Input
Amino acid sequence: MPPEAAPVIAKWIDYFQCEFKISKSRATKLGDYRHPFKQLGHKISVNNNLNTYAFLVTTVHEFAHLLTWNDHRNKVKPHGEEWKVNFKRMMKPFLEKQVFPADLELAITSYLNNPSASSCTDLKLSRALKRYDMLADHTRLEEIPRHSVFSIKDGRRFKKGEQLRKRFRCECLDNGNIYLFSPLAEVLVLSTGT
Output
């Protein structure tokens, strides 16, 4: 995470007596919060493959879950109004310290108007965060032409089709099935469409 953010996060870990773990990359989530159970306290984990700014946003997201659980236990929705209020409140010190670059701060401020369950579902914020990734051999699906052939991490090959509302309809060349992909999905281009 950005160095100037670390003291705030360290205070939160200490204050909430939270076990904070940096996890190996998980395909389905960037971070996770587990409320106290039996004799165990709060647990937060954040993926190790995130860029510094995505790591911080994900960390704040998970701490907002912790604060919401402390205030309401499991009587409210995980990403309901209570969580949104806590997320905005917990993001405030980092915005005040100007931890984020200007383009990212603008995207975060816009996202804070109505934060969603995941920063990944907000395309504007996700695009802004991905600008700081260090992946050189991958491209976002939205950047390649229609009918291009690409592969994903597990090696399956796909042909890019039309964009529906937000997602692209893609045919798996290995089994003929149709899958919907986020425009921000990271793919390895095998051949460009015509």
